[in-house]
Amino acid sequence: xxxxxxxxxxxxxxxxxxxxxxxxxxxxxxxxxxxxxxxxxxxxxxxxxxxxxxxxxxxxxxxxxxxxxxxxxxxxxxxxxxxxxxxxxxxxxxxxxxxxxxxxxxxxxxxxxxxxxxxxxxxxxxxxxxxxxxxxxxxxxx
Length: 142
Hints:
- By secondary structure, the chain is mostly helical.
- It has 2 domains: 12-96, Rna Polymerase Sigma Factor, Chain: A (Orthogonal Bundle); 107-139.
- Helices cover 63% and strands 0% of the residues.
- The protein contains 6 helices and no strands.
- The chain is elongated, with a radius of gyration of 21 Å.
- The relative contact order is 0.10.
- Mean pLDDT is 78; it is low at 1-7.
């Protein structure tokens, strides 16, 4: 007996077992695999993107990619590294992409009557309005 406590991965099925089961079409196995690796995937996204909504989007996109490409995994024991690589690539694509605000492209050009760039109150109002709009957009269902 080694005297070391079992790791969470050794308590249940291994990544290799879960990957093979997911490749065989078992959706629950893929769900367990993604849940097990969600924190490391999120950590990669945070390290590259910082805090913000893009982190959750990249992790979610990586989960969808892994769902559609689980059959492509050649080394089921190294699926965690593959998931983190998918997140890393997603982050790099986001960092390279031009920043757009779908549907709100004209928002930054809105001017209130009597708006002066030197009036701090107006600048605060614009930022509060922008934050309110983003909060409302984030509340919308996918």
